[in-house]
Specification:
mainly alpha, 4 helices
Length: about 210
C-alpha cells in the first residue's frame, strides 16, 4: 500500500495507514456483502484486494494523504510549541532559583560573619572585664545573649524564606507540567477529531 510518503514522521505514517485501512476495510465489507447475495457463487478475488486496488487508483488516496499530513503537522507543531514553552518557563524558573539561592547564600555568609565578629568582640570584652567589677560581667553576658538571639532569629528567618521559596518553585513546576500536558492533550483530541472527519469524508463511493 503506497499511502505513506518517504521522509514522513512515524506518527504521520501510522495515521496515514490507519485512515487508509479504515476506508479499505469498510469498502471491502460492502463488496463482500454484495457478493453474498449473488446467485452465482463463483470464486472471486478477495474483497479486501479489490477494495485496496480501488482505493489506490482513486483520488481519495492522495486527498487523504494530503489532509492527514496537514493535520499531523499541526499536531506536531502544537506539541512542539507546548514543549518549548515548558522548557523556557522551567529554564527561567531555574535561573531565578539559582539567583535566589546565591543571594540567600551571600546573606547567610554575611550573617555568619557579623555574628562571628560580634562573638569575638564579646569574648574580648569578657577578657577585659573579667578583671573588672561584677556589673561589667553582667553587661557582657546580656550583650552576648542578645547577639546569640539576633543570630538565631536571622537564621530562622532565612530558613523560613527558603522553605517558602521552595514551595513556590515546586508549585510553579507542577503548574507548568499540567499546562504542558493539557495543551498536548487538546492537540491530540483535535488530531483524532480531524482524522475521523478526513476518513469519513473520503470513503469510497458505493456503486
Amino acid at each position: 500500500m503506497r499511502s505513506v510518503a518517504p521522509g514522513s514522521s512515524p506518527l504521520e505514517n501510522t495515521v496515514q495507514l490507519g485512515s487508509a485501512l479504515v476506508i479499505i476495510f469498510e469498502h471491502s465489507f460492502y463488496i463482500f456483502d454484495q457478493r453474498r447475495h449473488l446467485p452465482d457463487k463463483q470464486k472471486f478475488v478477495p474483497s479486501f484486494d479489490v477494495a485496496l486496488e480501488q482505493y489506490t487508483v482513486s483520488p481519495h488516496a492522495a486527498a487523504v494523504k494530503g489532509a492527514v499530513s496537514v493535520a499531523v503537522d499541526a499536531y506536531e507543531a502544537a506539541v512542539s510549541a507546548a514543549s518549548r514553552a515548558y522548557d523556557e518557563a522551567m529554564g527561567a524558573a531555574s535561573r531565578a532559583y539559582d539567583d535566589h539561592m546565591s543571594t540567600a547564600s551571600r546573606a547567610y555568609e554575611e550573617d555568619m560573619g557579623t555574628a562571628s565578629h560580634a562573638y569575638e568582640e564579646a569574648k574580648k570584652a569578657k577578657r577585659s572585664f573579667e578583671r573588672s567589677q561584677e556589673k561589667a560581667k553582667q553587661s557582657f553576658e546580656r550583650s552576648q545573649g542578645k547577639a546569640k538571639q539576633s543570630f538565631e532569629h536571622s537564621q530562622e528567618k532565612a530558613k523560613q524564606a527558603f522553605a517558602r521559596f521552595q514551595e513556590v518553585k515546586e508549585s510553579f513546576e507542577r503548574s507548568q507540567e499540567e499546562a504542558k500536558a493539557s495543551l498536548c492533550s487538546q492537540a491530540k483530541a483535535e488530531l483524532m477529531k480531524t482524522i475521523l472527519e478526513i476518513t469519513l469524508k473520503h470513503r469510497l463511493p458505493i456503486i
